[in-house]
Amino acid sequence: MTDAIRPLIAGNWKMNGLKASAAEFDAMLTGAAAVAAKADLLVCPPATLIAAFAAKAAGKTVAVGAQDCHPKASGAHTGDIAAEMLADAGASAIIVGHSERRADHGESDDLVRQKAEAAWRAGVIAIVCVGETQGQRDAGQTLDILRGQLSLSLPGGSKADNLVVAYEPVWAIGTGLTPTAKDVEQIHGFIRELLISRFSDEGAKMRILYGGSVKPSNAAELMAVKNVNGALVGGASLKAADFLAIAKGCP
Ligand code: PGA
C-alpha cells in the first residue's frame, strides 16, 4: 500500500547561501526535468532567499520551502518569521522541529506541534523532524524517543497531503555516518505503524523521509528501503549535481 507513495527529495540548506547561490538553484531547476519521473523536489534555502528562489521556480518542478517558523501569525516577536510570511514569500512547505533547532533553541515537542499547526494555518505542508541522539541510541531508547516525539510533535488532523515526517538520527546528521538499511527499515516500519494507528489511511499514505548524511553514493540503497519515501538532505543539497543525483537514486 505504501509502495505507491511518490518520493520527496527535500534539500535543507541550513544557514548557507547568499544571493550568488541562485546559480546553483538555477542548475537544479534546469536538471529537475530529468528526475521528475523519480521524485518531487523541494529546496529549503535560508529565509532571505525564499522569495527570489520561488520567483525563479514558478511553473517549474522544484518547490521552495522554509526551515522554521514562529507559531504565531504576527506580533511582537523580534527577529521571528511567521508561517504566513514564508507562504507569502513563496514557500510551500516548512521544516519544523529539526534537531538543530531542538538542541540550539531548546524547542520542545509542544512548540514543534504548534509550528506544524502554524504551517497548516498558512496553507503549507509541515515537515516534522524526529530522531534520537547517539546517547539515546546507545541506551537502547530509540523507539521510545521516536514514539514520544511523534505523539507530541504531530498535530491531530495530520494527513498525507499536509504533513511529512522526517526521521533524522541526530548522530547521522553531518557526520557521514548512516544507519544500516536494516536499521532504517526497522525504524521506518515502526514509524509507519504509529502513523497508521493514529491517522489510519492517512498514516498509511504519509511520506516518511530519511535524513542524515544522505549523499549520491548511498541514496539508492537508502531510498530502496521499505517505508522510506524520500530524503531530507543537508550538506549534499547545496550542490545541484549531488542533489539531483540523490533524486535519481529513488527507485
Ligand atoms: P546532512 O543533514 O545531510 O548534512 O547530514 C541532514 C539534515 O540535517 O537535514
TrEMBL record:
<comment type="similarity">
    <text>Belongs to the triosephosphate isomerase family.</text>
</comment>
<keyword id="KW-0324">Glycolysis</keyword>
<feature type="binding site">
    <location>
        <begin position="12"/>
        <end position="14"/>
    </location>
    <ligand>
        <name>substrate</name>
    </ligand>
</feature>
<keyword id="KW-0413">Isomerase</keyword>
<feature type="binding site">
    <location>
        <position position="213"/>
    </location>
    <ligand>
        <name>substrate</name>
    </ligand>
</feature>
<feature type="active site" description="Electrophile">
    <location>
        <position position="98"/>
    </location>
</feature>
<comment type="pathway">
    <text>Carbohydrate degradation; glycolysis; D-glyceraldehyde 3-phosphate from glycerone phosphate: step 1/1.</text>
</comment>
<keyword id="KW-0312">Gluconeogenesis</keyword>
<dbReference type="InterPro" id="IPR020861">
    <property type="entry name" value="Triosephosphate_isomerase_AS"/>
</dbReference>
<protein>
    <recommendedName>
        <fullName>Triosephosphate isomerase</fullName>
        <ecNumber>5.3.1.1</ecNumber>
    </recommendedName>
</protein>
<comment type="subunit">
    <text>Homodimer.</text>
</comment>
<comment type="function">
    <text>Involved in the gluconeogenesis. Catalyzes stereospecifically the conversion of dihydroxyacetone phosphate (DHAP) to D-glyceraldehyde-3-phosphate (G3P).</text>
</comment>
<dbReference type="GO" id="GO:0016853">
    <property type="term" value="F:isomerase activity"/>
</dbReference>
<feature type="binding site">
    <location>
        <position position="174"/>
    </location>
    <ligand>
        <name>substrate</name>
    </ligand>
</feature>
<comment type="pathway">
    <text>Carbohydrate metabolism; erythritol degradation.</text>
</comment>
<feature type="active site" description="Proton acceptor">
    <location>
        <position position="168"/>
    </location>
</feature>
<dbReference type="InterPro" id="IPR022896">
    <property type="entry name" value="TrioseP_Isoase_bac/euk"/>
</dbReference>
<dbReference type="InterPro" id="IPR000652">
    <property type="entry name" value="Triosephosphate_isomerase"/>
</dbReference>
<feature type="binding site">
    <location>
        <begin position="234"/>
        <end position="235"/>
    </location>
    <ligand>
        <name>substrate</name>
    </ligand>
</feature>
<dbReference type="Pfam" id="PF00121">
    <property type="entry name" value="TIM"/>
</dbReference>
<dbReference type="InterPro" id="IPR035990">
    <property type="entry name" value="TIM_sf"/>
</dbReference>
<keyword id="KW-0963">Cytoplasm</keyword>
<dbReference type="InterPro" id="IPR013785">
    <property type="entry name" value="Aldolase_TIM"/>
</dbReference>
